[in-house]
Design brief:
Blueprint lengths: L2 H9 L6 H7 L11 E4 L9 H16 L3 E4 L13 H11 L6 E4 L2 E3 L11 H13 L3 E4 L3 H13 L18 H9 L5 E4 L8 E6 L3 E6 L6 E3 L7 H11 L4 E5 L6 H10 L6 E5 L2 E5 L2 E4 L10 H7 L3 H12 L3 H7 L20 E2 L2 H14 L2 H15 L1 H7 L3 H9 L14 H8 L19 H14 L6 H14 L2 E2 L2 H6 L6 E2 H13 L7 H8 L1 H9 L3
The structure holds glutamic acid.
Glutamic acid binds next to strand 10.
Amino acid sequence: MDYNKLAELLFGHIDKEPEYYETLYPKRNLPEGAKVTRIGPSPTGFVHLGNLYNAIIGERLAHQSGGVFYLRIEDTDAKREVEGAVELLLSAMDYFGIRFDEGATLDGDNGAYGPYYQRQRKEIYQCFAKELVRRGLAYPCFCSEERLFAMREEQMAGKDNFGYYGKWALCRDLSLEEIEEKIKNGEEYVLRFRSFGDIDNTVELFDGIRGMLKLQENYQDFVLLKSDGIPTYHFAHVVDDHLMRTTHVVRGEEWLSTAPIHAQLFDTLGWQRPIYCHTTVLMKMDGETKRKLSKRKDPELGLNYYRQEGYVPEAVWEYLMTLLNSNYEEWRAENPDKEIGEFLFTTEKMGISGALFDMMKFDSVSQETLLRMPVSEIYDKMAAWLKEYDAEFYELFTRDRAFTERIIGVGRDGARPRKDLTNWKQARQFLSFYFDETFVKDDPYPENVSAEDRKEILNRYLATYDHNDDNSGWFEKIRTISAELNYAVKPKDYKKNPELFKGSITDVSNVIRVAVVGRCNSPDLWEICHIIGEDAMRNRVGKEL
Ligand code: GLU
């Protein structure tokens, strides 16, 4: 077979040679050890936690080493593409503080290694496809869907391996004349790789996270170009990551099984393989069992969720870093005030079995993160969130900055600071009692206090209340009320001899707390009374009498 002729027949319109692109996209001029990484999301309209997880790894590897981190839009599957998806992706990445040095932007390309939208690289892929045809390593396949389906049935019946290989690869040995004839008749075809792999062979593949892997060699004549001349992921990945000079390919472990295909392509084309870093899937506990996070069942898989709930990006980074590097939590404990970027992230410290995403743990990391954040920053960030998601509360929240900063700051100091804030949605709920406009009674009064006693407690509270009392003077009065009404002043005494009392001082405080705050659990009540002011306090208690 004259492969040159076949190459011209299939790719007569391609006039560039591979060298042209090799020169156009030269090796990057970077310091020794600098890593070039990327993310290659498909514009499906759903940006998920896995995208961010991989982006953080790529970003860290590149920026820790003085390298380059870029964005490539993998839009080869037009069927899955959704309008506005790139915009959504860019905005999500921006929100989470992922900064690209180059790559796709809304206005096109930024960088010398583009285009960064795969569909615009059709000619580049075809140039290398033509080269493979010339070398006898790729051929057109005219097999119809029906034919492939029938083949699969036959393979199933005969317990053969599925796929297009060996004796099943019917189009492998078509003659030039047969091919010409079919093309003349307008028959559709894909371009397949002529694999020389052996089903019984293994290949070694180095993975930055998993170490040296032994995988089954690829023996399938997989598709390089689809019938519209657009490449499959396999071919596009290899051509792009070579020409864009990627050193580390960070991607989900779902690509591990086809990695031998990619290794074979890199080797065949005479290109250096990148270091693959196959990340683990994100899992969650569902009852007793661990399962993959699912788009359908778990809202927390979508990145948008965190934004809508008002989790700060720093908390998401913080938590993902604890999942990514086993030594991160220890580092954070030792360096509470350092920027996350100062932590040295390494792929060697990454786990290889599914990372468990635990919402409770994440919430607690979020609380810690907000506790470390200065009050004025919390104010600004929460105000920005409210402006977008809760315009009504935004008005109250921003009415008096000094007041609002004061309520954010309650209970944050001291040896055991309170961790009241988790995310802006929850914080909005939590802080609502400070404003008369949003104050509601969430919790009922303690059950063991009779309606009569409740009134008595509140009456006595108002009667003895002096706004000039300090915290201990104020509390002394509550002790007095408790003792007078036969509630144990020391909760311990009540526990020991419950028959001697109607309850304890905790019940008395909770009656006042529910009247003033609307809840049984709140920061220091004296402080709250001083923040909302005597009038507001008297007003709230008065309504309960
Ligand atoms: N488009 C692929 C995906 O969304 C990218 C995989 C890769 O990073 O190579 O899974």
